[in-house]
Amino acid sequence: MRAVTIAIVGIGAFCAAQLVPYGRAHTNPPVEQEPQWESDATRTLFYRACRDCHSNETEWPWYSFVAPASWLVQHDVDEGRSHFNASEWGRAKQHGDEAAEMVRETKMPPWFYLPLHPHAGLTPVERDQFVAGLEATFGSSEEEPEPGDHEH
What we know:
The protein is mainly α. The protein is built from 6 helices and no strands. Helix 2 (about 40-50) packs across helix 6 (about 125-140) and helix 5 packs antiparallel against helix 6 (about 125-140). The protein has one domain (about 1-140). Helix content is about 45%, strand content about 0%.
């Protein structure tokens, strides 16, 4: 009897979660401007491994419409776009200079993204190529600032 009660409560909670409006109104704002990619190969690797969270061209999977997964997906896309959005380049401070470091340290794409998006995985050779392309496109966070170029 206890298992039935737990199941009923679980199903009720799942159904109630579907009433929360956050996470299902998926929008892809228009692409305003892309970075000046160093090469087509860098752009191709970006679109394969990073596009869903770091552009306005997200492909929303079926589970992104079902709570609570929809909440997590929406949060990840909102967070990714706020740090680095290749579709709104030049609009606000972007963190392109950190992109190569994040890929080099295998922090991007994140480990939890890869099981459901195996196409986003990078081989070691692709990772090295992508890091070099990102550094050529955006510079490196390890570079010294230009004279007169300082944060306020």
